[in-house]
Amino acid sequence: MATRVVQWREAVDPADLREYDAFGPWIYPVRSAAELPRRFRRYWADLAYAELLLKIPRDRDRSQIQPGDDLYHSVLAVFPERLQVLRAEVPDAGEVERLDVRFTEVVGVVTTANLLQGQWTLLLRNGRRLDVPHPATGGDVMEQVSDLIRPRISGPERRLPTTGQLQPRDHLFGVHLAALADRFGSALALHVDPRKAPCRGGFGWPKVSTGTMIVFTPTELVIVNRGEAARPVFMPNYEVGTVELPYSRLESFAVRPPARWSSFHQLVLRSGMQDYVQLCLNPPDAVAAQLRLLEFLEDI
């Protein structure tokens, strides 16, 4: 009697097979309940009305997965007045955590990339942060999320000064400055710290700076950095971060002198209970002068 050997793909649920075939370090849009990962499917009735719905994969190698595995750790949905994140930290176990943030509570957006890992963060008025880790290859998709919510957290455009523009020598900063000018219509770099300049960290140990650029656009202050402001001399650094702080959400600022054994000034930008502190190797005098022109800001 002849027998037929069944190929393993024929025995797999077609929906699981489609998800398995598509899986990789990519963020996908979700347009139907069938495209939503099984773990989150019971929330479809609410998610169906989102303007933008994304599923974010776990950090797993394809050689370690099989059809039917729990492959996505979170789902992000943008609604007209809020953003919702559904998160399942532990594969195939535990409850799905639901986080809702109204745009009225958002005071800034932070994006970071470090080799293969990325993170998109909302800074909230109550001092908390909403972190959404993702593959660095999905950075352009998360930038679309930032573009979608930017008009909902930014105020009216402001006129930028016509003098004081700095031209960064650092290639990374130059690329970011050009991209910001394209995105916002104009961008003015008023502070640039050099990279690899000798400096001291908090405990006085010799280090080198990683560089910082502070840019004014018509609607927000943008900081471009490489994560930590200083690193040990022989330690490589691959992190790149961008911080977007709308003027309409800022309430006060301060410039503090370097602490003992440190080379860095502190630029403190406050929104409600949220303090964002940027370390600057050189005094950010031009930034402070421009912030003082925003009449609603207090100089603390």
Distance between the termini: 88 Å
User: How big is the Rg?
Assistant: 23 Å
> Which shape, going by the Cα principal axes?
globular
Helix/strand/pairing category: alpha+beta
Q: Count of helices?
A: 5
Q: What is the strand content?
A: 35-45%
CATH architecture of the largest domain: Roll
Instruction: State the CATH topology of the largest domain.
Output: PH-domain like
Q: What order do the strands of the largest sheet run in, or round the barrel if closed?
A: 8-7-6-15-13-12-9
Instruction: Please give the CATH class of the largest domain.
Output: Mainly Beta
Task: Characterize the structure shown.
The protein is of the alpha+beta class. The chain folds into 2 domains: 10-153, Roll (PH-domain like), CATH 2.30.29; 171-299, PH-domain like. Helix content is 17%, strand content 35%. The protein contains 5 helices and 19 strands. The protein has helices at 14-22, 44-47, 139-153, 171-184, 285-292; strands at 28-29, 52-57, 72-78, 82-87, 97-102, 106-114, 117-124, 129-135, 188-193, 198-200, 206-209, 212-216, 220-225, 230-231, 239-246, 252-256, 265-271, 274-280, 298-299. The strands form 4 sheets. Strands 8-7-6-15-13-12-9 form a 7-stranded antiparallel sheet, with helices on both faces. A hairpin with a 3-residue loop joins β3 (72-78) and β4.
Question: Can you summarize this structure?
Answer:
The chain has 300 residues and is α+β, with helices and mostly antiparallel strands.
Topology:
Elements: H1 14-22, E1 28-29, H2 44-47, E2 52-57, E3 72-78, E4 82-87, E5 97-102, E6 106-114, E7 117-124, E8 129-135, H3 139-153, H4 171-184, E9 188-193, E10 198-200, E11 206-209, E12 212-216, E13 220-225, E14 230-231, E15 239-246, E16 252-256, E17 265-271, E18 274-280, H5 285-292, E19 298-299
Parallel strand pairs: 16-19
Antiparallel strand pairs: 1-2, 2-3, 3-4, 4-5, 6-7, 6-15, 7-8, 9-12, 10-11, 11-14, 12-13, 13-15, 16-17, 17-18
